[in-house]
Amino acid sequence: MSIRIQLQDARSVYTNLDFIRGKAILSLTRDEEITAVNVKLEGESRSRLEGEPEIPYGFSGRRRRREETAIETEVHKVLYKAITVFPTPKSQLAQRNGVFAIPPGQHEFPFEFKLPFNNSCDVFRPVVLTIGGRPMQAPATTDRHIKRALPPTLHAFEDQADIRYYVKATVVRQAFYKENFRTESHFPFFPIEPPRPPPNRMETYARRQHQFTPILELSATAESPSKSPTIPRDGPGPASPSNTSPSSSLAPLRICIESRLPDPAIITCNEPIPLRILITKLNDSPATVYLQSLQIELLATTLVRAHHLKRENSTSTVLISKSNMRIRLSERDKVMEIDKAGWNRIPLPNTVAPSFEICNITRSYHVLVQIGLTHGLEDKKF
């Protein structure tokens, strides 16, 4: 006896509201007695972390500790649908006490499922199996359930986090000494984007202020009036023979750097990030600002939970990294915007998975902007 699943018009990726059609094919070499053939559509979110075991408080009121570590596993059924493809009301086979005698050959049982929008973890209740009156060891259940959109397929961080979707067929046999035959067919899932709010002119931003070191004005001595004044970039050092002497210092330049995204902040694969970078002068210093380096990264943070254990994993995708740019920004305007031509032609890679939140795994994104600036008077930079 063997059972396999054949999907009809199999796709490389499935999404919400797609139909999954196919058939469960049962192959027999002799007569077999079965009670049913069940087909299930399942999605499973599994987290597995290693850490210090959770031990209840003792009578002394202090938590006891042990040197050994424990592996905690948390499993959630984010998707669960089941149908019985055999027997059906149209079945003509003879039965005895609910058992059907199936002749040898190949038997096909068609099925059809529709992928929903949201998960069904909060309504799924696992069945507890027992052997000899003792329950089988299984991952502990949790009461923490949230209703959200179905998450994408995920395999990452050395099996710490795993989200998979599959169709499972089971041939049920009545005799307790005969095992049920099962097979699974996995498929990748990628959710569709929820409806976006109407466009507006609002922006979300991150802001940081900075104050440069004051610029010293140097005057030449009468002994050598033709030699131009200089100052070391590394700051004050030991005195050396020089024909210059400090006379006064200009007010230190204070600036505010802002990175802005549309509100709500939504970025899409195969499209550039709609980012704006503004530099605002906060005082009337005559110094000119120069853009020296620029790096933009997309940080992905995945929070994995397994009961009392938590772990945060981060990955980075560099979108642009430039140095030695020496771009002179406007010295007349108090608000200066960095030219977006450096990044608005670079699309976000299509390998970036969407953000999501599920009972035991959460993924979010942040845009990290690193800017290198110098300042100076005319051709002097500091």
Keywords:
single chain, 382 residues, mainly beta, five-stranded antiparallel sheet, 0% helix
Structure notes:
The protein is an all-beta fold. Helix content is 0%, strand content 48%. The chain is built from no helices and 24 strands. The strands form seven sheets. Strands 4, 5, 11, 12 and 13 form a five-stranded antiparallel sheet that branches. Strands 19, 20, 21, 23 and 24 form a five-stranded antiparallel sheet that branches. A four-stranded antiparallel sheet has the order 14-17-18-22, with no helix packed on it. A hairpin with a 4-residue loop joins β11 and β12 (161-172). The radius of gyration is 33 Å and the shape is elongated. The N and C termini lie far apart (80 Å). Residues 219-247 have low confidence and may be disordered.
Q: What's the Cα radius of gyration?
A: 33 Å
Shape: elongated
Low-confidence segments: 219-247
Strand fraction: over 45%
DSSP summary, beta strand count: 24
Largest sheet features: 5 strands, antiparallel
Distance linking N and C termini: 80 Å
Work out the helix count: 0
**What share of the residues lie within helices?**
under 10%
Structural class: mainly beta
Average per-residue pLDDT, rounded, comes to 82
Order of helices and strands: EEEEEEEEEEEEEEEEEEEEEEEE
